[in-house]
Amino acid sequence: MGAALFALALAAAPVLLPVLPAVPAFAVSAPAEPFVTASTDGIGNVRVEWYTDPGVTQVEIAWRDSRGATDTRTVGAEQGSTSFTGLPAGEWSATVTAISDGARSSSVTVSASIAGDPAPAVTPEAAPVPQAAAPSTAPAATASPVSVAFAVVPREDGAIQGGSARVMASGLQASSPYQVTLRSSSAVLTTGTVGADGAIDATFALPDDIAPGDDALVLTAVGTDGLPVSGEYPITVAAPVVAEPTVPAAPQADTSEPGGLDELLSLRGDEAVPVLLAGTVGATAATGAAVGAASVVNGRLRRLRLSRFIDRDLAGLPPLPKGGFADTVRDVLTVLRGVR
Question: E strand or H helix at 3, and its extent?
Fold first, then answer.
């Protein structure tokens, strides 16, 4: 009886089992931050390079340019580098993060200064296929770089006025309108429609009345992003050369012809008689020659020489003052000129 009760008590006593400690879940540690560098050629291209721990499988690059455009690119860590091209001028920056089995490292930020023309838009290179990661965000639509060139052909005399010009451009919106104007006056020189390939190649005439000085030909068109674009070609317009008219010289009277007055005045009286009788002088001299008196002809020739001297050689002299000797000279000249 006693033994039975003892056995029953043992059967009713609770069985205590040892409590084992909970096994903690496996924790994935974050990878160390990558070592990152960024370099640029100064004309819109940036290269980003990195070095990561062996366990890192992916690298994420989130970038931003000077115009506020952003994008995120995820590539395999073993790639070691990636490039961005066609970036606008200004400050460019990127945040780089290493990824290992979903764990992310601390981010590292790098930047680069890009010089050059800010007109070209962002054209990032195609992102490689990410390895075991969500697809990256697609880049925003961007405009293609625009190229503009002019060529001016002056006239044969070298003047730009009245010459011609040629405009060539690419990277424009297909079938969009364009025009070329003169900067100084806004005069429209030519208009047209961009080709299906987004290019322009047109020749047009330059006005004859372009004002001299510094000016420019201006192309206005539409880029592939639908925004207006323009390009200028500076020109220097010279003043036109006007030829001075040639005034023909007045014909000079020939007074040295045979038998003329110059020949007659150079003869003595006896030599002049035959000339006078030939009728080459006036009636007064002819009358003296008709009587055959050489002395009379000599006297008339002397008076004729004096009269010619007064009329031709003294005509340009200033008038003589009145009074005294001047009146006497004037009276003598008057008498001499009145003698026939």
Answer: helix 2-12
* Average pLDDT for the chain: 74
Please indicate whether residue 258 or residue 330 has the higher confidence score (pLDDT). 330
44 within domain boundaries:
yes
* CATH number of the domain that residue 58 is part of: 2.60.40.10
Phi and psi torsions of 220, nearest 5°: -120, 125
Q: What's the total number of domains in the chain?
A: 3
The predicted pLDDT at position 81 comes to 85
Domain-located, residue 169: yes
In this predicted structure, which of 44-48, 50-54, 123-127, 128-132 has the lowest mean pLDDT?
A: 123-127
Tokens (6 digits) for 131 = 């390895």
> Residue 57: inside a domain, yes or no?
yes
For residue 309, give the DSSP letter: I
Answer yes or no: pTM beyond 0.85.
no
Q: Report the distance separating Cα 189 and Cα 180, nearest Å.
A: 6
* Domain annotation covers residue 219: yes
CA distances from 244 to 212, 241, 247, 315 (A): 20, 9, 9, 33
Listed in sequence order, the residues at least 6 apart from 230 whose beta carbon sits closer than 8 Å to its beta carbon are 218, 219, 220, 221
Burial of 251 (0-12, 13-18, 19+ CB in 10 A): exposed
Q: What's the average model confidence in pLDDT over 112-137?
A: 58
**One domain for residues 108 and 154:** no
User: What is the C-alpha separation between 204 and 160, in angstroms, rounded?
Assistant: 13
- Domain harbouring 158, CATH code: 2.60.40.2470
Domain that holds residue 177: 147-237
Beta bridge partners of 38: 48
